[in-house]
Design brief:
Length: about 290
């Protein structure tokens, strides 16, 4: 049974708030991906099935769910053209198979630079059609002791804010390090759901992950769905995990601190609208209008 048939027919994209279902089920997947794409896709398929069994209509996979290479350059050698490649084929087929909206947290896509990729979050509808692509804008750089990261060596940044209407509300797309830049989410205007697929390091995640996720939910009065890489990886990296879904009041509805698995929760648009009426902070903004 598909998620849609379990919960009833979803409203079409672009439906008015009154036409949308007041409650929809969403799920976020946590993984510890490795260098083998086929193995990662098998694990993703298993976890998506579990999410569908819990009634999820929108399922989100973490950043780099399809490839976490031994070296940063591995994703360049495995990059795909938009509309072609095993990772995208998996996403389209899986969304259609289960009749769900499915977010591929990030897929390495070709770009102009031969030695780099676009780190692209790709959202598919229940027919397996690509409805939105967001290229990660903010590139992670970090040096603390022996821990060093520089995404600009292998990633070409995006330059476009992306939102999309869905049967579950208006969705804003972002990836991992974007979470530290609240102006990105302000540029999305009024959104109902923020998707933040991530692969936070254990060092930065332990200190900042939950406060940042909850802050983005509170200040935008929006649900935040944050699927994450979580655990030890074959390449020696440790990611923080703590996949969670947070409501517009900053309440953590479900979370998974560590290991592979799924978190799920209800997205209640009536609850969201009531909060926005009680606390109309979005309409009280002034500085962005100066």
């Amino acid at each position: 049974m598909s998620a849609q048939s379990f919960f009833g027919k979803a409203a079409p994209p672009g439906a008015t708030p009154a036409e949308r279902p007041s409650i929809a089920r969403v799920a976020a997947v946590q993984m510890a991906s490795g260098p083998n794409v086929e193995g990662n896709l098998r694990e993703a398929a298993r976890l998506i099935e579990r999410a569908v069994e819990h009634g999820a209509q929108l399922v989100a996979l973490p950043e780099y769910f399809g490839i976490m290479g031994m070296r940063e350059e591995d994703k360049v050698s495995l990059r795909e053209r938009e509309g072609s490649g095993p990772i995208q084929a998996f996403l389209a087929a899986t969304a259609e198979k289960h009749g769900i909206w499915l977010l591929g947290g990030s897929v390495p896509l070709q770009c102009d630079a031969p030695d780099k990729v676009r780190n692209s979050s790709m959202l598919y509808d229940e027919s397996g059609r690509l409805v939105a692509r967001y290229d990660k804008i903010h590139l992670f750089g970090f040096e603390m002791g022996e821990e060093r990261y520089s995404e600009q060596r292998t990633i070409e940044p995006g330059n476009r804010v992306v939102t999309v209407d869905s049967p579950f509300g208006r969705i804003g797309l972002s990836v991992c390090y974007d979470l530290r830049f609240p102006e990105l989410y302000r540029a999305m205007k009024e959104i109902d759901i923020i998707l933040v697929p991530s692969a936070f390091t254990e060092t930065t995640g332990r200190a900042h992950w939950e406060p940042l996720i909850r802050a983005r939910a509170i200040e935008n009065l929006a649900y935040v769905v944050a699927p994450a890489q979580g655990g030890y990886h074959v390449n020696g990296r440790e990611t923080h995990g703590d996949t969670m879904i947070v409501d517009p009041w900053g309440v953590v509805l479900d979370r998974l601190p560590r290991g592979s698995g799924v978190v799920a929760a209800g997205i209640n648009l009536q609850h969201l609208q009531r909060l926005r009426q009680s606390l109309p902070a979005l309409s009280h903004r002034t500085l962005d209008r100066c």
